[in-house]
Amino acid sequence: MMAFVLLITVLIAAPTAAAEPPSNDNQAGATVLTLPAAVDGTTVGATAAAGDPKCGAPMGATVWYTLKRPDDRTVVVSFQARGELDVVVAAFQVVRTGLKTLVCVVSDTHGKAGFSFEGEKDATYLILVGQRANSVPGTFHLAVQAPPRPSNDDPAGAELLARLPANPKGTTLGGSTDPQAPQCGTLSADVWYRVDRKAAGSIVVLLRAGGELDATLAIYRRVRSQLQRISCSQTDSKGRADVSIETEKGGRYLISVGQLRQSSPGAFALKVFAPEPAAVGPGTKLVHGRAHATVDALTDRDDAYAVTMEAGRTYRLNLVARGNCVGMALYPPGTRRFDEAESIRRTSCGGYMTFTPGPDAGGLYSIRVTPSGGAQGAQRYTLNVATAGPDDVGPGLELRNGETRRGQLNGATIDVVDLYRFDVRRQSDVDVRASGGVTAAVLSENGGRIGTTQIRDRLRARLHPGRYFVTLRVAGPVKARYTLGLQIRDITTTVVGVDGSSAATIVGTQATVSFLPKKIGRYRVHALFFGNSGASPSTSGTATLVVGPPSA
């Protein structure tokens, strides 16, 4: 027998040596920065000391930088993490009692962080980069600078915008805040512009912030030595802020662009201009009864159109807004200033209306279109005006019993509503059938809405003698081809059945049913009529029929 010997070699890997902590792992070893500075750093191997300041979020490791200022320029800090590193970045001023927190931010989803703070001459500062407790270690790039301040850094040095429109470009980089000046929000920097008004009227200011700048836009009026704030707004997620104000002749107005405290500095662009003047009556002649245009709550606040209307004739008006609400108002002849006049008819969010000038009330009417106050940018609309036809106003088109009508509506033009009439000679059950994407309603002779029961595409009601109307309407700028039918039926009595076992056909108004009882006893009798084109369905209660033994 042969024997085999198996030799097994076991290799045991030596443990990996722990990474050495960075040289700036604690405050005492903070890396000295000479501005402008751009350095690469790491949290690999870094630790956290028990005495490290806490801010922003819990930290598992910290590294430190220090700088001393020879002047009072604003210090700007920009940070970019690499890999999956998530950090807290903070700035502290070294004071007698320890560390004074100036700014503390958390890196965003892209690993970026940035801020600025106002420096003091001969002051010493520490910058902390803290690896968050749930983050992996990693490397980063840190840039620190102290750029010169913008020339318009305070209200006294506000840049004059001598002529409007003006399109200045600027930056908050290096900017500071004046403790004596008002602020719109909590800011780390602001820059200023000035507009001196030679005439009363509106001015519009549009701010577009670039890069990572989160900003505020404020407007003040100087009254002797004081600044009275008129407006204050913050940029949205796209870096935009818009302001419109009314100004007085001889007024001096200051515009402030402020950098929010935890924002990175950045460039911006302003547009300052006077909007289009308010429309005056009677307005632009409405050519061919239609207008396509835009209005804007900031730059073009209203449009006006002139329409000649004859006394006693009915006119249709339809305003279709493309997106946000746009309002419409009708003014009488002779109107010049709309803000000082009373409108005849009005709708706040587009829509359809009719109007009939009374006796001796014909003339040149004005239609004013206004934007929705809450919407930004240009709001498109289409305005249509036309005389009313027979199917638009009373008495409407005749609709006979049993008749079917077909038609078409178009909410994008002027044909929004069709009107039909029908007569009920005696109390009857009435069915109105309307299909094709229209909304139907039954009205009384006085225009009041009749309560109906809706069964799929039918409106059903029991009506007294009189004249009634059916309105068909489309909602919004859509086309609809409809079918309309009317059925007026007499209120009926019943057909008799016993236990549902027998039925009969009515001849005239009565029917007789005979049956052979299966046994002596009580039988239930009820009446049911299914209806036809001239008579409505009906049913009765239950009666009892007693069948006894045959007589002798």
Q: How widely separated are the two ends? A: 124 Å
Helical coverage, percent range: under 10%
How many strands, which pairing sense, and closed or not: the largest β-sheet?
A: 5 strands, mixed
| CATH third-level topology of the largest domain | Jelly Rolls
- The CATH architecture classification of the largest domain is Sandwich
Radius of gyration: 41 Å
Unreliable residue runs: 1-16
Instruction: Please list the strands of the largest sheet in the order they lie side by side.
Output: 1-3-8-5-6
Structure notes:
The chain has 552 residues and is mostly beta strands. It has 5 domains: 119 residues, Jelly Rolls, CATH 2.60.120; 119 residues, Sandwich (Jelly Rolls); 99 residues, Jelly Rolls (Sandwich), CATH 2.60.120; 93 residues, Jelly Rolls, CATH 2.60.120; 52 residues, no CATH class. The chain has no helices and 39 strands. The strands form 9 sheets. The chain has a 5-stranded mixed beta sheet, with no helix packed on it. The protein starts with 30 loop residues before the first strand and ends in a 5-residue tail after the last strand. The N terminus is likely disordered.
